[in-house]
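To whoever is on call:

I kicked off a structure prediction for a single chain this morning and the downstream step that reads the tokens threw a length-mismatch warning. I double-checked the sequence; it's 144 residues and nothing unusual in it as far as I can see. Pasting both halves so you can look.
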Amino acid sequence: MERWMRLRSSYNITLTVPLIIILHMITHTTQQFTFMYICNKEKFDDGDLRLPCAYSLLEILSRYRIEGGMPGKQECAGPDSGVYGYVWVDVTRREADIADCVSLAEAVLKDHCPNRKGAQVNETTGICRMRYELYSFTIAGTTT
């Protein structure tokens, strides 16, 4: 099944294009890594504690180097205010490469998906990936 995504320009033109094209278009390359990222179109309101909470959760999860990745949930400011996150790293890679990838992936999320209610970033060769959302999600049999 092919997925489709709508793009809106500042001129109020809506394009419907295959999702695979969008993933190809939104990449960010550093000196040694290339990342693909997807940002939720909805933004947090100013002062919403769930955004720093999401970044904090990803930082905590990124410390775990386990096969299959590390899912998690963190309550931010009371009931029904949690965020869900997932960080996966290729445990067969050098620790320095993993640390660099995770650090740069966090920077890509913050720089390219600022203030978004959900985002994910994947390094194209498979060294690392991370995601946060305001709802529970499943990745390869792992539920957050």
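Update from on-call: the warning came from a stale cache, not from the record. Cleared it. Sanity check on the structure: Confidence is low (pLDDT under 50) at residues 1-25.
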